[in-house]
Predict the structure.
Amino acid sequence: MITILYEKSNKWTLLFIDSVLVLISTYIAFNLRFNFKLPNVYIEHLLLGLPFTLAVRVILFFVFKTHSGLIRYSGFEDIKRIVLATSVGSACFYGINIAFYFAKGYYFMPLAVLLIDWLLCTMLVVAFRALAKIYIIEKEAKHTETKHVIIFGIGQDALTTKKTLDQDININYEIVAFIGYEKQFKGRNIEGVPIYLLEEGIDKIILKTKADMLLICKSNVPLNTKQDALDIALKNGLKILNVPDSDKWINGQLSINQFKEINIESLLERDAIKLDISRIEKQISGAKILVTGGAGSIGSEMVRQILKYNPAKVMVLDQAESPLYEVELELNTLFDKSKFEITLADIRNEERMRRVFDYFRPDFVYHAAAYKHVPMMENNPSESILTNILGTISLARLSVEFQVKKFVMVSTDKAVNPTNVMGASKRIAEIFVQSLNKKIKSETSTQFITTRFGNVLGSNGSVIQLFKKQLQNGGPLTITHPDVTRFFMTIPEACQLVLEAGMMGKGGEIFIFDMGKSVKIIDLAKNMIKLAGLELGKDINIATTGLRPGEKLYEELLNDSESTIPTHHEKIMIASVREYDFELVEKNITELITLFKTQQNDKIVGKMKELVPEYISNNSPFEKLDTK
């Protein structure tokens, strides 16, 4: 009967059961009042009263819709409707009883019977729903595979997480262990669940508890400890979820819907950067700042972070119309519209850029605009010299002319010992701004600073974005070579370091960032497959496509002839690089840009190799130029 109520949602069956309970409550109420020794007169009253009571109760059940809810989801609102229906019914009985008393001189139903009947009827109808709901939940639990869960973390948040899982009625969870790293918790337990120390070996704990899931619910777990645990959990096939910090719980309450799957960025994240916020704010507050490439991954994040430091205004400049429009829509919701200005412009157009500088008069320029895709630039060398070189030169010269305080250029690790056109073009841009800074150092206050770092997680066109799309499409995930490695950094982290380097730079430096350990791209692909809950070779495959034109197996932040000078920030160093004579650099770059008109790729790339002797092409048609 209960199963029918749940599976078929049969409200008429529920109404029938409620009717039976009404009759039972009235019968018991009469008998309880007279200790189950009913006088003959009340036997007649009982027999006459049963159909009348039933009729009134059923009508009110219809009025208050007590039978329309699903047993499976019954709750306080359903109880409230039941109490209202039975109370109104008993009030009706009381009124009729009083009228009967004035007409006959005695009560049709003793007042004690009315009270007992109301209590019994309410209790029986509510109790049936409660018992039925418990039965349905337990029946579901028996047919649902139990999920064995390890909670990584100890404390109030961990306890709340356990209670949240215990209360979830959709999935049968069993908390099998808590994991901590503080030795004082060894041998202890939380609500009967044992606490294991991480030093015991998470793989052994997983094996012992037969765990299916790992919940990370403590944000102050040391990052390297957390990442080691995640790596082992992934290798053992556990599903990993992250519990938000308590200050992010909705209305102070935690629900299972707030648990989020760990993403690949979590496996690559590093300790939070400590910024000299007061000095950055002192530099930026009240200043006018131009950000080129402002619609890109790095440029747009630079804008977001700069706006937090109360600049007078930020000009967000880009030549990509649609992405720039999207950035504008986002900024409109986050910041005061008077604090930023959106400008559609191409940095290669010197007349347009002169108008921008003349109108805006920036104090600082953060130059993030560039063509960055290696294969694309390998096929279009002439475009790389116009944007990455000529565009940078135009901005640099205008910065001197309009007395910009600092010009901070975003470069790349691909500029080190470049093997492709894109990396070489960025290295030439580095050489120009550094030699220009040396030339004008005594003539003007403009300082030129270069920042150099590797790949950023989640940037437009990054390998992670590619893998996510390939996962959605069922694969395969494509890698160019099993041995390819790359450095990775989050977009916010990269932008924070750019701001810090820009603040500490005095002019002429090339700052390089600590990128941590390089990551094998094939390992990245395997971890993303595991995080998606898929099995490599069964659900999805990895395919090797071969190195793309100009691509390296691994990347560097310094070439063999460079060394580093430490700064006050542990993650920022200054590269000691070769210095160039500005006049010679300017002459060679002018000749290079003039070659654009020829549209002869070999001549263009050959000249780039003259400017950057360490530029040796790899897996590229331009390798023939190196043999000469």
Summary: The two ends are 89 Å apart (CA to CA). The CA atoms of residues 616 and 626 lie 6 Å apart. The longest strand covers residues 173-180.
